[in-house]
Amino acid sequence: MTLSPQSLSEADRRLVAVWAADCAERVLPFFEEEAPTDERPRDAIERARAYGRGELDTAGEIRRRFVAGRAAGSVATPAAIAAARAAAQASGVAHMGAHALGAAAYAVKAVSARRPDEAEAELDWQAQQMTVEVRRALRQLPPIGEDSAGPFVAGGLLARGVLGSTIRALQSRIADAS
């Protein structure tokens, strides 16, 4: 079985999971304002961090990766929906490393929905939070549209619209930080 370049090694997925959790946590209040008793996104972020620390196994996290995404159905505003999806993408890093950039992109989408003039600042913050190791790991991901499978496939969920343009901007910042 050939793995997609979007997968990353388990060690690299653990590394980028923490960064993805940081990105998702910044917009979590947008979700919690609308659904203060729904803990699925917060739990997903905590699990992503625990996975990053090696405290949770990959198989178990792969099985639970969709839980936070379902929380998006319990809120109405675009910012809250995007925040829930950012948490879901962070928890999905155990499955595929590309989801780290998905978490960041959904976080930017959440900020854009609430405070459009702060989207660029959010991208700056995300790039500044990348350690050398996180940048190295994320640099291994193929540019959007250049892989035949996974979320970065041309026309795929993370490859189009604001998510795609955000990931392209992040990938450009990662490349420029070499």
How would the blueprint of this fold be written?
Layout: H1 10-34, H2 40-52, H3 58-64, H4 67-70, H5 78-92, H6 99-114, H7 119-129, H8 132-139, H9 161-176
Helix pairs in contact: 1-2, 1-5, 1-6, 1-8, 2-5, 5-6, 6-7, 6-9
Key terms:
globular; mainly alpha; single chain; 178 residues
3D structure, described in words:
The radius of gyration is 15 Å and the shape is globular. It is mainly alpha-helical. Helix 1 packs antiparallel against helix 2 and helix 6 packs antiparallel against helix 7 (119-129). It is 65% helix and 0% strand.
Instruction: Please summarize the sheet with the most strands.
Output: none
Task: Indicate the overall shape.
Answer: globular
Termini separation = 32 Å
Structural category is mainly alpha
Count of discrete alpha- or pi-helical segments spanning 4 or more residues: 9
Oligomer: single chain
Average pLDDT figure: 91
Please compute the radius of gyration using only Cα atoms: 15 Å
